[in-house]
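Lecture 7 notes. Example A: sequence first, then its structure tokens.
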Amino acid sequence: MSQPLKIVITSANCFTAGLLIPALKAKGYYTIGLIRNPQTIESDETITNWMNNDKAKRALQDADHIIHLSGEINSKKEAVYIQANKTSTQIVAEAASVGKARRLIFLSYPGADACSKNLYLRYKGEAEKILSAAGKEAVIFRCPIIIDSPDKPSRIDTLFISQNGKAIPVIGDGRQMMQPVYRGDVVKMIVSALEHGDPGIYELSGPERLSLTGFVQLVNQNPAVKIRYTAPWLAKLLANFIKGLSTTFVDILLNHADSEFTPATYKKFGIQPTSLTTLWSRRQ
């Protein structure tokens, strides 16, 4: 009997990995999760402190495929963006370049560009270049804001859901357009990319175009939900003082939330895009 293919997943304790690992195991893959701090996750094997661990490097070298989920979108320190988005990718690429992995699958962001003034986009852009030069088949999905289902909302979902009738804080005037993608579709795309499709960079946005206000109304299932808008200049100022809010993330929400739905991406990997409007209309 042949041995199952080994899949190494970085940041294996993130929301996407939480859906991905069971899907991979159901397909018969052997999963090795790389995380920073000790935590119980569903992978067959778990390695902690992975960025400074020789065992993790050996696992990356021995992997049949690598799924790189590491990244940071909201930090006040450039060093954090470098470590999470660029350094982690260098570790993956260096190990893969001398290892047996056939494919490297990476989640990036629309507009990723090594020359961008936005730190998140800059280091995602650098990461794309690093993986593309690793000498392996790199499949890169540029995902905008990723949304979950109403029965299992993630942090980004609950951020926009009213608590006890309180107003939802929104950065900007709410007219920023967005094409959020369903996390379940992202997971299906990753699993499919292990066996199908060509290497390259793919835009992976959802099929529905919403304003930020429209999105808030959707996840609350309430067109009259209270919203408190914060002027861009004030949001940028407050980001210097509010813990958990960075000027980089404010810039993403104000100027880089939009993306483009590309049906060809879904067709290439045999996935049917999910309507978030339909999905969230089931919220009780």
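Example B, a different protein, same format:
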Amino acid sequence: MKKIFFLAIAAFSLQQAVAQVKIDRSQKPKAGPAPVIAIPDPAIFTLPNGITVVVIENHKLPRVRANFYIDAGPIAEGKKAGTLQLMGQMLEEGTTNMPKARFDEEVDIIGATVSLSSTGGSAAALTRYFDKAFSLMADAIKNPAFSQESLDKLKSLTITNLKSEDKNAKAIASRVVNALNYGKETARGGFITEESIKGITLEDIKNAYKNYITPSRSYLTFVGDIKPEVAKAMIIKTLGNWTGRKLPVPAMPEAQNPVKAEINFIDLPTAVQENCLLLIY
């Protein structure tokens, strides 16, 4: 009882002291000292197969993240629009060494994150498990399974999503505006359609992989609790013997500014609202 009594007195005294402090709310509070951001100098080296590696050490927390990026540049797919997207999705459909279910289980067991796309991939995990996570990413990049069953499944999902977007005014506008801006036959202006997805074959997927998933013009960054020598040994073990074609620098057509103003309409009777986009050059 005495303890409660003394706590009540202390709380009342504190309340009175705070009430007596005069605060001028018309004046903006003074800012505290600016935080000092110290980014360590990265270790940079290049492997014989063309991969440029950047390692930034940060040992504050026991975790590491790696990002692998292939600088293939903008690619015009024409009538096969969607090939690269499907190919990137199929990199997550298992490898020649393990099916998708086992691959996903291996990632989950160590609490890691591993993702792949048409431009590379990433792996993140606690330091003690990072070697395993990185090996899984490397396996997916080097040894994709590319099964017809997976392709059929992903094509069906993509077509379903496209049909859903066909009723979305905003989605349609974003597609059309790029086509009008850059031309629908260019890398930036081309867009995926149901017809283009249906026309993609497994051979198209394999050719896209062969042409664009390569160590040439690729960058691998490590950030976190890892030493450069450890990262280098890890890469040599998993990707050191990986070879591929040399990526050419894509030809970029010269952009042409419009000579007059244009107003383009898309009639969508099923839309409950309209979407307006304005481009200013």
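Note on Example B: The first strand starts at residue 43 and ends at 46. The chain has a mean pLDDT of 88.
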